[in-house]
């Protein structure tokens, strides 16, 4: 079946512009995660959605970052007034259940802020 | 706060060797420990998931073990092949339900 789909695969934007990154999880997966991966760094947790529960936003680095998940499916990560330090690969993952289900990752969106 | 460590950061070996990749974590209150591989320019691919009640899981040439009390997991790769070259990451899933990742180990298997 189809895996996790992310779009765009690459995004170049000017400093100060807003960007939206999209994630289509695997159908039926209740959990959805956003992570950020910078060169030479590990995966940094950003936000976690589980079913109809309030999302865990504890990893969002500033109030310029926000995310939503509509209808328990597609998710959008929005970065306002982008800064050069926002340049990274943004990875989305979904899993079938809350715990003890393997995460399935998309190929990521490479964001470059010039 | 959970911290996950993978040492060494990189490993280069000749083809055919049996490999041991190490992962340590500081908080033993976990639901599971997961191993992933990442190829350049790609997302992560799930390899194995070991639940906290389990000691090991196997898939083909891969075997992962978990010792919660000592905060360690090990991924064994038997008879390594050039196609095994990738970055391997481990991650612990704890009470917050989010996964905390190590920084990964870059493996190069030379033909």
Oligomer: heterodimer
- Poorly predicted regions of chain A are none
First-to-last CA distance of chain A: 37 Å
Number of helices of chain A: 0
Main β-sheet of chain A: number of strands, strand sense, barrel status?
6 strands, mixed
Broad shape of chain A = globular
Q: How much of the polypeptide of chain B forms β-strand, as a percent range?
A: over 45%
Q: Please, what is the average pLDDT of chain A? A: 95
Tell me the helix content of chain A. Answer: under 10%
Structural class of chain B: mainly beta
Tell me what the structure shows.
The complex is a heterodimer of chains A (114) and B (111). Chain A has 114 residues and is mainly β. Chain A contains no helices and ten strands. Chain A has strands at residues 5-7, 10-13, 19-24, 31-37, 43-50, 65-69, 75-79, 88-95, 104-105, 109-113. In chain A, a hairpin with a 5-residue loop joins β4 and β5. Chain A is globular, with a radius of gyration of 13 Å. The mean pLDDT of chain A is 95. The N and C termini of chain B lie far apart (41 Å). In chain B, a hairpin with a 4-residue loop joins β7 and β8. Chain B is globular and about 40 Å long. In chain B, the strands form two sheets. In chain B, strands 2, 4, 5, 9, 10 and 11 form a six-stranded mixed beta sheet that branches. In chain B, strands 1-3-8-7-6 form a five-stranded antiparallel beta sheet, with no helix packed on it. By secondary structure, chain B is mainly beta. The chains are: A mainly beta (114), B mainly beta (111). At the A-B interface, β4, β5 and β9 of A face β4, β5, β9 and β10 of B.
